[in-house]
Amino acid sequence: MSSKITIIGAGSVGSTIAYTLAHDEIASEIVLIDINKEKVEGEVMDIEQGTCFRSPVSLVAGDYADAKDSDIVIITSGIARKPGQTRIELTQTNVNILKSITPQIVKEAPNAKYIIVSNPVDIMTYVFTKISGLPENQIMGSGTILDTARLRYGLSEHFQVAQGNIHAYVFGEHGDTSFIPWTGAYISGLSTDEYYEEMKAHGKDVKPLDKEAMLEYVQKSGGKVIAKKGATFYAVSATVCQLVGLILAASDSLATVSSMLHGEYGIEDVCLSTLTLVGPNGIQGKVQMRMNKEEVELLKKSANALKEVIAQIEL
């Protein structure tokens, strides 16, 4: 597959994405850009010295000019929250970083599909959409793809069934107001409640699903990993590389990426995650999955929480 992918930010997430792309043979050319030139050169050297086990790939520790004609640009730049720093303060700092990056990269790669990974990802996706001047179909945030992956792993462990049999999603903000629309959660065509009854009838040793506990597992997993090892980057990198694969595929797929809403579910002018058609032409629209009234209200609550943050930052 011949594709050029630029990654901005060579921290744990950006460099792990570069490593994964290099070894999955997703890209033929990878450009890694970071303000810390020494760091990015070291990352590229380390990655490229292991590429003899795959077909040839070009890795460049570059500048914005090297991103010219990129098919996909992945933005991971930003800082982690410091002790005593409020979420708003962190948001404004990372928004300012994005504002400095955006005109430089858009000038070089105006036709690329952009994946925003920097946190808070929904706010950053919104800001990039507003200031980049690019068509909205070219812009998506990684959103709740990682949350959805965590949910499917949690369900597969609970029910002892392969993750590929599970179709369940996390909607809303990639954060505290995310939720699981259980109305649209299925295991091989059965609702989770129906699947539990079927497994019980087959003599399987399964317990009833505690849905609140499952949501807490999804929401708290990132914090637990950070507490234990200092950062999360393997799972998020895997999900971003999966998204890259969807963009480079021959047909559209569905994914919970963060993108601008225009009246879907009664929500306007905010980026968050719902089922979205993603493919070679970028975002092709939202698929409005069946949800009950309570779930729609949870989505609106998530949207309002994000709008409150947007109202307090300087665009």
UniProtKB/TrEMBL annotation:
Keyword Cytoplasm set for record: yes
Annotated function: Catalyzes the conversion of lactate to pyruvate.
Lactate/malate dehydrogenase N-terminal domain mapped to chain residues: 4-141
Active site: H174 (proton acceptor)
Reaction(s) the record says it catalyses: (S)-lactate + NAD(+) = pyruvate + NADH + H(+)
Subunit structure: Homotetramer.
Principal location class: cytoplasm
Protein name, UniProt field: L-lactate dehydrogenase
Record-linked NCBIfam families: L-LDH-NAD
InterPro entries: L-lactate/malate_DH, L-lactate_DH, Lactate/malate_DH_C, Lactate/malate_DH_N, Lactate_DH/Glyco_Ohase_4_C, NAD(P)-bd_dom_sf
Molecular function per GO: L-lactate dehydrogenase (NAD+) activity
Description of how activity is regulated: Allosterically activated by fructose 1,6-bisphosphate (FBP).
SUPFAM superfamilies in the record: LDH C-terminal domain-like (SSF56327), NAD(P)-binding Rossmann-fold domains (SSF51735)
Record localization: Cytoplasm
The gene coding this protein: ldh
Domain Lactate/malate dehydrogenase C-terminal intervals: 144-313
Record's keyword annotation contains Cytoplasm: yes
Family statement: Belongs to the LDH/MDH superfamily. LDH family.
One cellular-component annotation, GO: cytoplasm
Residues that bind substrate: R81, R87, N119, P120, V121, D122, D147, T148, A149, R150, T232
Pathway the protein contributes to: Fermentation; pyruvate fermentation to lactate; (S)-lactate from pyruvate: step 1/1
Enzyme nomenclature, EC number: 1.1.1.27
